[in-house]
Amino acid sequence: MASTWTRQHILSLADWTAAEYESLLQTASSFREVLSRRTKKVPALQGQVVTNLFFEPSTRTRSSFELAAKRLSADVLNFAPGSSSLTKGETILDTAKTYLAMGTDIFVIRHQQAGVCHAIADEMDRLQSGVSILNAGDGQHEHPSQALLDLFTLCCLLDDENPRLELLQGKKIAIVGDILHSRVARSNIWSLTAAGADVHLVGPPTLLPQLFAGLANSSHRGQLFLHWKLEPAIQDADFVMTLRLQRERMTNHLLPSLREYHLRYGITRERLKLCQPFVKVLHPGPVNRGVEISSDLMDDPVVSLISQQVTSGVAVRMALLYLIGTLKAEV
Amino acid sequence: MASTWTRQHILSLADWTAAEYESLLQTASSFREVLSRRTKKVPALQGQVVTNLFFEPSTRTRSSFELAAKRLSADVLNFAPGSSSLTKGETILDTAKTYLAMGTDIFVIRHQQAGVCHAIADEMDRLQSGVSILNAGDGQHEHPSQALLDLFTLCCLLDDENPRLELLQGKKIAIVGDILHSRVARSNIWSLTAAGADVHLVGPPTLLPQLFAGLANSSHRGQLFLHWKLEPAIQDADFVMTLRLQRERMTNHLLPSLREYHLRYGITRERLKLCQPFVKVLHPGPVNRGVEISSDLMDDPVVSLISQQVTSGVAVRMALLYLIGTLKAEV
Amino acid sequence: MASTWTRQHILSLADWTAAEYESLLQTASSFREVLSRRTKKVPALQGQVVTNLFFEPSTRTRSSFELAAKRLSADVLNFAPGSSSLTKGETILDTAKTYLAMGTDIFVIRHQQAGVCHAIADEMDRLQSGVSILNAGDGQHEHPSQALLDLFTLCCLLDDENPRLELLQGKKIAIVGDILHSRVARSNIWSLTAAGADVHLVGPPTLLPQLFAGLANSSHRGQLFLHWKLEPAIQDADFVMTLRLQRERMTNHLLPSLREYHLRYGITRERLKLCQPFVKVLHPGPVNRGVEISSDLMDDPVVSLISQQVTSGVAVRMALLYLIGTLKAEV
Question: Where is carbamoyl phosphate bound in this sequence (chains A, B, C) (predicted)?
Fold first, then answer.
C-alpha cells in the first residue's frame, strides 16, 4: 500500500504533488474499508508512540487523531496544556524534545501560532531524530488533515469505489466566510486547485483582503477567484464550503453582527437554488447554527456533508499516520 | 450469556422488567468472576468505541466506566468539558453527532440537566444510528448504573453464588438524606421496589417533599414510605443507604448546618442499634466523613459496604456495556 | 529476571540495599533493550491496573509513567485533580481506597505534601490489599524514580553493556541549586552515596541550610559535602547535576533575582573548565534556559545528559513497575 511515499512531515499542502494526493486518497479508501468491519483495528503501528501536543484546546480534532492512532494499534500520549511544564517556563521546543526522548515516533501538533510546527520539524531534523511532525492546525497558516478529509469526502461522493483527484477537475467550489483567519481555507485552496477545481473565495472585505488573489499556485490546474458578494461566488457551484465564524471577530470590529453576517453570507435553502441542482454543503465544524448555515440545512442529509467529513477524518488521519509511520520503519 | 437482552439505551430504571434485572445480575456475576482472574480482560467489545461525554466533572464514575470498557477491550474516548467545542458555541446534540460520525458505538453521558440523555437517545434513534446511550447521571433525574451496582452489591451479600432479585423480597431499606436532589435515590426507588423491598425515604422536609410519595410504581411488589424523622425509618431496617450531602445546599438555606444535619440524620453506631442485628450501610460516595456517616462506621468492614459498591461498579458497568454492545452486533 | 526482589512500595531510597540498586539497574537495562526493538511492548503486566494519582500537576513524569505502564501492557487510569472528588470534600485516603476497590494493582502518586505516599501505603497495608505504592514525588521529601533514572543514566554512560553500582565508586558529583526544596536532591543523595560517589551540595545559604550535612547515611561509602560557593563544589567534578529553580522562590525573598542566581550558580562552558575533562551535566527538567544552565550548554550533546535522562526514565519506570508488579503475582 502506497510504497512510494517519501514525505516525512505533513506541515503544509502548498507543495504536494498529484501523486501524493492520489496515494493519500487510495490509502484512506482502504482504511475506510477497515472501519466498516466489525473489528476496526490493524496492527500497523503497534509499539509506536503518537504524541498529541495540543497547545490550543480542541476536542474533535484531538479525538479524531487519537482514535485514528488507536485503530492503527499505536500508543497515544496526550499533552494537556493546562497542567503542563509550559506554565513552569519550559520552551515549546524543549517540551517536544522531552517527548522525543521518551520515545515518540510521530507528533501531532496544534498551536495558535503559525510556523510552530515547522520550527519543531526543523529541530527534529537537525537532531536526526527520524520522527515525523503532523500539523493539526497552526495559527492562521494551515490545517492539512482537514483539507485532505474534505478532498476525500468530495472524491468519495463522486466515485465511492475509486476516489481520485481527477474527479474534481472543472468543478466549481465556493469557500464562504472568514477567509483571512482560516487555516482550513488556506489548506483547501492548495488541495482543491491541485485537483483542478476552481475555487471561489467569498466573504466581507475585512475578512477577505485582496492579497488572497496572489495565493494561487500557477502550476495547479484549478483557478482562484475572489468575491465580496455571495451570489456570484455560489452561482452554479457544485460544492459550497462554509467556514466557522469566530465570535471574537465581532469584538475586533471586523464584523457588525452575527445576524447581519447571516443575512449576507449565511447559507440557506433559498440561496442554494443558485447552485447546481445536486449541490452539497461542507463545514469544518463546530457550527454556529443559524449563522454560517441555516439550522434545517445543516440537518438535511441530502445536502449536508458535515457528518461524512467527520467520518472521513478518521480514515484520512489513519492514512496520514500510516504513510509517515511506515515510512520510518523502512528507513 | 443473556441472549434475550433487547433494550438498546439505559436511560432510566422506571420501566425495567424483572427479567432485565435478572439478566443484569447474572451477567455482572460472570464478569465478577473474570475480574478475579489474573488477566482481567475479555475481547467482547474489541474494535468498538465507547465515548465518555461527561459534561459534569466526575472522577469515580468516569474511571469506573473507563476501566469497564477497557476490560472489555473497547477503545475509549474521553470528552473533556473544559477544552471542548461547547465553549465555541456548539450544541450538545451536535457534539454527540460529531462523536457518532467518528465511529462511536456506545455513549456514556453525564450532564447536569435531567433529560439530556433522553434527548440524545431520541436524536440517535431518529438518525437510525444504532448506537446506545448509557445515562451516567442526568441532573436530579436518574443514575441507573449506580442503583444497579447497589442492587448487585446487596444481592451478592445475600447469595454470593447466585445473586437474584427475590433475595430482597420483604427487606426494609432506608434511604437517608437529600432525596430531593438525588438521582441515586430516584433510580434506587425503582430497582429496590421492583425487587420487592420496602423503601423508607427519610430526610429534612426541605429535602424530602411530600410529592415523593407518588413516585412508587404500583406494579412493583415493594412499597415506598416517607419519613422526616430518622428513627422510624431505620427501625428494624436490613440496609441503610445514606446519600451524599451537597455542601452548596447550605448556601441555599435548605439546611441549617452540617453539624445539625449530622445530629439529626447522621448514621452512627449508636443509631444502628435500632436496625436489624446484621444491618449494612451503603453510600454512593464521595463521603463527607462525620456528616452523612460517622468516620469509624465508614471504615468498619463489617458494617460498611462502600468498598464493595465500588468494586461491584466495575462488574455492573462491564455487564451493561456488554449487554448493549453485543445487542448491536446481533442486529 | 530479578526474582529476589521483595520490596513492595517504592517510597524512599533512604534504606535501599546495594542488591536492590543492582536489581533495578539490571532490569532497567533489559527493558532498554526492549525499547530498541520495533515492537516495544511486553505482556508482563497485562490485565493489571496502574492508577496515576497526581495531586500536583505534572506532564513529563506522568507521561513517562503512563508510557512505561502501557509498554508493560497494563491498563492505566489517570486521576485528574481538577475534575476530582477532592473538590467535593473527599479525603485523599478515601480517593485512594475508591481506586483500590475498582481494582488498582499499583498506585503512582505525586502530592505536594511530604509523607502522603507513606500514609497511603500504610493504609493499603493495614487493609491487606497487596497493592504497591510508587512515590512519584512527595513535597520536598523524595522522588525515587528520578534519582534511579539519574543513577541508570550515569552507570550506562560508564559501561553501556553492564551498568552497575561500583562504576560510580570514588566519582565526584556536584548537585547545584535549590537543595532545600528539592526532592530530587534528597533521593539522589541516597543513591549516589550508596554507589560510593562523593556528593557535593552547593547553593545559596538560604537554599542550602547547614542541617543538610547530617543527611548522610554513615553506612554508605560515598560522602556528603556542603558548599555555598560554586567553584570548590565543581572543582574536578565528574558530573554536575543542576536543579530546577522554582520561580516562586523569588517572591519569598529566598533569592535576589534570576540574573544574580545565574551569575553565581549558573552552569556555563567557562565554569565547566574547573571540572574533569569529560564532565557531563544533568538536569531533572523542565529547564529554565539561561538560569540554571546556559542555553548552548543544554543543547550540546557532548556535555548534556538531559535527553538521556528522559529516555532512561521510561526504562527505569518500566523496571520499577515490573519488579513490584510481578512481586504481587508471586505472593
Answer: 60-61, 110, 143, 146, 285-286
Is residue B143 within 8 A of residue B318, CB to CB? The reply is no
Peptide bond before C286: cis, by omega within 30 degrees of 0?
Answer: yes
Minimum distance, in Å, between the CA of residue A149 and any CA atom of chain C:
30
Closest Cα in chain C, distance from residue A103 (Å): 7
Query: B97 to chain A nearest CA, in Å?
Result: 8
Q: Side chain identity at C162, as an amino acid letter?
A: N
Domain that holds residue A118: 18-142+311-330
CA–CA separation, B228 vs C17, rounded Å? 62
C106, amino acid identity: I
CA–centroid distance for A263 within its chain: 27
Residue C207's Cα: distance from chain center in Å? 20
CA C149 to chain centroid, in Å, comes to: 6
Is C285 annotated to bind a ligand? Reply is: yes
Contact between residue B206 and residue B254 where contact means Cβ atoms under 8 Å apart:
yes
Element spanning B225, H or E: strand B224-227
Which residues in chain B have Cβ-Cβ distances shorter than 8 Å to C103? 35, 40, 67, 311, 314
Shortest CB distance from A59 goes to which of B47, B83, B101?
A: B83
Provide the number of structural domains found in chain A: 2
Whether B211 and B119 share a structural domain: no
Residue B7 resides in a domain? no
pTM (whole model) above 0.90 = yes
Q: Does residue A231 sit in the same domain as residue A298?
A: yes
Give A39's contacts in chain B (Cβ within 8 Å): 46-47
Looking at the structure, tell me whether residues A77 and A193 fall in a common domain. no
